[in-house]
Amino acid sequence: MSNEFLSGSYQFNNSPLYNFQLNRVVLWNHGDPAEVAARGKEITDFASWERVLKELSYQAERRKDWAAAAGYLRMAEFFMVPDTPESRDVYDRAQELFYANFAHLFSPQGGPIHRDEVPYESGTLPCWRITPSGDKRGTILFHGGNDSLLEEFTDLLLYLARGGYEILAFEGPGQGAALRKSGLTFTPEWEKPVGAVLDFYGAEDVTIVGVSLGGELAMRAAAMEPRIRRVVAWCVLPSIYGALMADKPAEIRTTLEQLLSEKQREKVLALYTGLSEQNPLFRWSIQHANYAYGTADVYEYLQRAKAFTIEPVADQITQDVLLISAREDLMVGFDLYKEEIDLLKSARTLEFAVPGAAIHGQAHCNMGNPQYILDLILNWNNRLLQ
Questions:
Q1: At what angle do helices 265-278 and 298-305 cross, to 10 degrees?
Q2: How far is CA 373 from the centre of its chain?
Q3: What is the pLDDT of residue 51?
Q4: Which part of the chain is the AB hydrolase-1 domain (predicted)?
Q5: 169 domain-assigned
Q6: In what order do the strands lie in the sheet with 138-143?
Q7: Of 46, 78, 101, which residue is a domain's last?
Q8: Mean pLDDT score of the chain, rounded to an integer?
């Protein structure tokens, strides 16, 4: 297959967090690397992030670079306070830019992508079904993680379809329009939205691919859903709560776990108030978590996060499993792979891949080399279906 994705590890900003997300703008959202490099160091806080990305989107729109215009705006929303008129306007405009200018990709204009709304609880799950041009090898069920939007994955999904697979890609509760338009928040019982999608299409014998937090969600679904025969965790995350605790200093972690076990809500809130005053990222992450998980405050979120784990059902994961990790993952501690491999004792087969910095695979979700990962997934799946 031809090399149609950018690859690389760019230094756009001195903050590891902003730098990673700017790499995401370029590598997965069609940003121009020279353009982002020229403006990246202007970003010092969430306000400047929003301003710079909006300005880049406007410039791309003026030159009719619609993929970049939508991508910049999509990522401008990332650090905005969620569920406000301002953030909703930015999300809606990014969607408008994308669907107005890429209508040729969708079935009404003869494209391969069929858009559906899958009924689920009180709302709907946006879903794309992408049909391969030739014979169908099988079906891949694809979803993202904590902040995923379907549109960000367009190139990746089309590439998988060109590999001979029917693609069913969806936004589940807590993601994309399922959250923003239907008000559906994350559920640890990911087999429920997965089951709704499989029922809607009558799909059987599928490979599930979960990206980022989706790595944990896909595993949980696989434990409970027999129509899933192969599992790809494109990020090794056995437990949200475990990952949240792993990145805390030992003293804070010990204190926090004790307060949570004793149900000391007010003391947990006071601790996080202090952390939020020191670090705006804490404040933003709490706001986003409360919105996506349907919780009132950080105490409720941390207690709810405990349910997002594969540990109680790991022995029911009997499928072929591919784990894909990253040594320099800013979001998820690399050492968690040991815990997950030990939990997966019942897997039919288990393969573990760790692309390194030499091929730009070291960052979260191997952001710097998506084609390498897509080929890895296709080759692994093809072998199993022979």
A1: 110
A2: 15
A3: 98
A4: 140-334
A5: yes
A6: 113-120, 123-130, 165-170, 138-143, 206-211, 228-234, 320-324, 349-353
A7: 101
A8: 95
Q: What single-letter DSSP state applies at residue 309? A: B
Whole-angstrom distance, CA of residue 307 vs CA of residue 289: 14
Q: What pLDDT is recorded for position 71?
A: 98
CA distances from 275 to 249, 279, 289, 297 (A): 12, 6, 16, 14
Contact 73, 79 (CB under 8 A): no
Segments in 77-186 forming alpha helices (H)? 85-101, 154-162, 176-180
Residues 204 and 120 in one domain: yes
* CA atoms of 248 and 264, how far apart (whole Å): 19
Q: Are 259 and 271 in contact (CB under 8 A)?
A: yes
Model pLDDT, residue 385: 96
pLDDT (0 to 100) of residue 317: 98
Mapping DSSP onto H, E and C, the string for 27-85 reads: HHHCCCHHHHHHHHCCCCCHHHHHHHHHHHHHHHHHCCCHHHHHHHHHHHHHHCCCCCH
Instruction: Check whether residue 300 and residue 155 sit in a common domain.
Output: no
How far is Cα 149 from Cα 155, in angstroms, rounded to an integer?
13
Report whether 149 contacts 77 (CB < 8 A): no
Query: Over the stretch 60-70, which tens digit does the pLDDT of each residue have?
Result: 999 999 999 99
CA–CA dist 217, 386 (Å, integer): 27
Q: What are phi and psi of 170, to 5 degrees?
A: -140, 160
| 62-96 pLDDT, tens digit each | 999 999 999 999 999 999 999 999 999 999 999 99
- Reference 140, options 315, 340, 322; nearest CA is 322
Contact call for residues 195 and 167 (beta carbons, < 8 A) = no
Mean pLDDT of all residues in 232-249: 91
